[in-house]
Amino acid sequence: MKVIVMGSGVVGVTTAYCLLKDGHEVTVVERHDGAADETSFANAGLVAPGHAYTWASPKAPKILLKSLWRNDQALRFRLRLDPALWSWSLKFLDNCRAERVAVNTARKVRLCLYSQDMLHEVVEDTGVAFDGAKGGLLYLYRNPAAFEAGVAKMKILTDNGLPLEVVDRDRAAAIDPALQPTKDRIVGGIYAPSDESGDARLFTRNLADWCAERGVRFLYGTTIRGVETAAGEVTGLLTDKGRLTADAYVLALGCQSAALAKPLGLSLPIYPIKGYSVTVPVAGRNNAPRIGGVDEENLVAYAPMGDRLRITATADFAGYDKRHSPADFQTMLGAARDLFPDAADYSRPSYWAGLRPMTPEGTPIFGRGRQRNLFLNTGHGHMGWTMSCGSARITADLIAGRTPAIPLDGMQAVH
């Protein structure tokens, strides 16, 4: 079967890989000049089932409200005359109820664990390099009350099969000696020994090269202008380079998915939530973290990536605006330097801001569109890297008519 995958982020490229392994003739269409040049470009790098909690939580409305006059909140709401933002936000608030949080988080962690297994299979099969770091991740707390709350809520993850260990500051410093000089700044943490990290862009680009060498066609610099349909199926893609046809089509365009799906009669509840990252070199420094983690008080994630350290933070409800200034990164840099003062050369930052394709529930969208040969693999939010390989296998199974390995309750398109 001929299959066109729309999008060459980590989700699109892993989907192309799974379809190739199933014996399909695969073409990937991408408007950028290479793979992983959008959301996958400089994300947090954490493969983190241990951080699968949904962002929509009982605490979120208060944080968003405070962000209207304070710029130091982990979630920041920007008032905009954007009907899509208000519609999406109302759905997000509806998912902040405790019962919805439990359901959505359980679905997320199941997908994350399955996807991590699939990631290991992909790496074993292809040997792609991506500055991967195993050994777990640490979720660190500075405040006793927050630590207690974090321990209480982790039950939903352990009930779904994720091993977690509650650690005091000494145990945390033993797990990652980089914390030894500053362990008095934390009260403890949660250690997820099976979590890991790696450079999603490096993984995606190397996997794209591996796929291209085996026959997958990548059409970079090609913008999709429209989708042709007839008799309940997609009959072709209209691009700035000409018309493309296939037997099946996969929508994996991240934040652009909703706009393309709308003329096809499908309303996808996906909205861009901006995140910020800064990458600093570790050359010449002697105490970089051995493993990644999250400073939970500040919601600042960090991940070692070979000779670099990636630091990420903030969820900005700001539409499609990707602009940023050095001031946007000061809080996250300050938190990282406080925990790891000699981890990297903080005077040489590389700044980036990107858009996460979020659904109100925090789970992605799979299944068919209104057209029987259109399949969806989109809306992965802040966990596209963690969820990518499992989502790709699910999509390939659906195209083949196989039942996916995990239930897709609440994660299929509503027509």
From the structure above, extract its key features:
six-stranded mixed sheet, oxidoreductase, alpha/beta, FAD, FAD-dep_OxRdtase, 20 strands, 11 helices, nine-stranded mixed sheet, about 425 residues
Overview of this structure, please?
With 415 residues, the chain is of the alpha/beta class. It is built from eleven helices and 20 strands. It has helices at residues 10-21, 60-66, 83-94, 98-126, 144-153, 155-158, 169-175, 200-213, 257-261, 330-339, 384-400, and strands at residues 2-6, 25-29, 46-47, 75-77, 137-141, 165-168, 188-192, 196-197, 217-219, 224-230, 233-239, 242-244, 248-251, 271-281, 293-295, 300-305, 308-317, 350-358, 365-368, 374-378. The strands form four sheets. Strands 4, 5, 6, 7, 14, 15, 16, 17 and 18 form a nine-stranded mixed beta sheet that branches. A six-stranded mixed beta sheet has the order 9-2-1-13-20-19, covered by helices on one side. Strand 19 and strand 20 (374-378) form a beta hairpin. Helix 1 packs parallel to helix 8 (200-213), helix 1 runs parallel beside helix 11 (384-400) and helix 4 (98-126) crosses helix 11. The radius of gyration is 21 Å and the shape is globular. The model has no long low-confidence stretch (mean pLDDT 94).
Structural class: alpha/beta
Q: What's the helix count?
A: 11
Mean pLDDT over all positions: 94
Oligomer: single chain
Radius of gyration, Cα only, in angstroms?
21 Å
Q: What proportion of the residues form beta strands (DSSP E)?
A: 15-25%
The poorly predicted ranges are: none
Name the helicity range. 25-40%
Alpha carbon gap, first and last residue: 25 Å
Largest sheet data: 9 strands, mixed
Overall morphology? globular
Number of distinct beta strands: 20
